[in-house]
């Protein structure tokens, strides 16, 4: 079976299997892993979701105990160490719960993606969607690889003293440091490995949830970008190829039909963008607030531990991962805004002035609408783009300096 026939294989639930569409096969495996693939049974989805939520929230129990005892002992430094853990757990839980709560809307988006690939497979427009979807897939792959690599390094650093005790033996045992400095109400040295494996398991669970949901968001956003690019390509072809050959009613009608396809493509692109925005806007608002708290407090932690190189390195990895997460959640929104605005420029660059007045009016309406960029927002209060990412980063620096001054 060749690729083209595999891409559009019939299925009972959906028209085609999007897992076989280029750039979606890896993402499909991740979605199945977290129980959010539209083709999974309800039993499978609920079972996996329950395991993920219990695993994630189980990390909150020793963290809350640590915060409580730290407040009792007036150890504010340790309280600050626990805050990024709580933030990370809540961000992951928000992501997976939001995706699960909007599973019907996601199924609609999923079906639209499959239908678009199916409708374009026999046309010369497929390369436009293919190129932009490929870019989205590469961004998602870079994001996953970076966070998973940071996870491995973060989890392995506490094991270094144990490895060194075997390789470079000293007269005394090196001090062991857990992945997280939280409270399990047991002897940390005696139960080092059970505590370590629980910390690693929950860390893996949290990161898998985060990279899966964010990768989905990136790939779908780039699909929307591809729809806007296809619309611009259609307008250029429709106006440039027929503007000199309109001599009779039949030719005019043919051009009207081509323009109708352009208008429908624009509406599909707008509708698809709105679906992505509606599905994520509440989640993004909560995540944004959590991110700002997490980055600010983790930066303080890093400074607090500069005299301990191994600990500072471990916390720095956490800080970089948080910033990386916020940056790569802002990039798709920027790309979508750029592509939606580019459509207005594509109309301007076409030979619209040589088309009938009726078509010019239609193109003008499309151009006016294209002047308003499509955005992915956090609760309708904050647009996910690079400019606002810079503003958030500056705000985090301000919070960092405030926390440092309060600590002094």
How is this structure best described in words?
- The structure is a single chain.
- This protein has 408 residues and is an all-alpha fold.
- The protein has 13 helices and two strands, in the order ααααααααααααββα.
- It has a two-stranded antiparallel sheet.
- α7 runs antiparallel to α9 and α11 packs antiparallel against α12.
Please trace the helix and strand order, writing H or E for each element. Answer: HHHHHHHHHHHHEEH
Structural category is mainly alpha
Largest sheet: 2 strands, antiparallel
- First-residue to last-residue Cα separation: 68 Å
Mean pLDDT: 81
List the main descriptive attributes of the protein structure presented here.
about 400 residues, mainly alpha, two-stranded antiparallel ribbon, 13 helices, 2 strands
Record the SSE blueprint:
Layout: H1 3-7, H2 25-33, H3 42-58, H4 60-72, H5 76-101, H6 103-120, H7 126-156, H8 160-167, H9 192-242, H10 249-304, H11 309-349, H12 357-370, E1 377-378, E2 382-383, H13 386-407
Antiparallel strand pairs: 1-2
Short description:
With 408 residues, the chain is mainly alpha-helical. The protein contains 13 helices and 2 strands; from the N terminus they run H-H-H-H-H-H-H-H-H-H-H-H-E-E-H.
């Amino acid at each position: 079976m060749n690729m083209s026939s595999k891409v559009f294989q019939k299925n009972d639930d959906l028209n085609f299997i999007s897992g076989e569409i280029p750039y979606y096969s890896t993402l499909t495996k991740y979605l199945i892993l977290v129980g959010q693939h539209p083709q999974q049974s309800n039993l499978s989805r609920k079972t996996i979701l329950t395991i993920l939520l219990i695993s994630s929230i189980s990390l909150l129990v020793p963290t809350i105990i640590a915060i409580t005892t730290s407040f009792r002992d007036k150890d504010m430094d340790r309280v600050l160490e626990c805050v990024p853990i709580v933030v990370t757990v809540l961000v992951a839980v928000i992501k997976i719960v939001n995706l699960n709560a909007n599973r019907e809307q996601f199924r609609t988006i999923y079906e639209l993606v499959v239908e678009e690939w199916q409708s374009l497979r026999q046309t010369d427009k497929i390369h436009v969607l293919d190129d932009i979807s490929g870019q989205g897939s590469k961004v998602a792959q870079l994001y996953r690889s970076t966070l998973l690599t940071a996870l491995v390094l973060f989890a392995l650093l506490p094991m270094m003293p144990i490895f060194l005790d075997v390789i470079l033996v000293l007269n005394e045992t090196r001090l062991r440091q857990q992945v997280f400095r939280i409270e399990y109400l047991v002897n940390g040295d005696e139960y080092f490995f059970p505590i370590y494996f629980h910390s690693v398991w929950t860390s893996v669970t949290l990161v898998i949830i985060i990279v899966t949901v964010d990768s989905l968001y990136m790939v779908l956003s780039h699909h929307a970008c591809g729809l806007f690019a296809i619309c611009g390509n259609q307008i250029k072809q429709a106006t440039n190829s027929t503007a000199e050959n309109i001599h009779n009613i039949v030719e005019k009608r043919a051009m009207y039909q081509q323009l109708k396809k352009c208008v429908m493509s624009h509406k599909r692109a707008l509708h698809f963008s709105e679906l992505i925005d509606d599905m994520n806007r509440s989640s993004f608002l909560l995540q944004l607030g959590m991110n700002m708290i997490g980055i600010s407090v983790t930066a303080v932690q890093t400074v607090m531990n500069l005299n301990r190189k191994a600990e500072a390195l471990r916390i720095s990895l956490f800080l970089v991962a948080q910033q990386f997460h916020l940056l790569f959640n802002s990039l798709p929104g920027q790309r979508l805004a750029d592509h939606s605005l580019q459509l207005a420029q594509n109309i301007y660059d076409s030979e619209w002035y040589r088309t009938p007045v009726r078509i010019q009016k239609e193109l003008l309406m499309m151009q006016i609408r294209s002047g308003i960029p499509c955005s992915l927002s956090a609760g309708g209060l904050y647009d996910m783009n690079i400019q606002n990412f810079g503003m958030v980063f500056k705000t985090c620096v301000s919070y960092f300096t405030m926390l440092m001054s309060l600590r002094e």
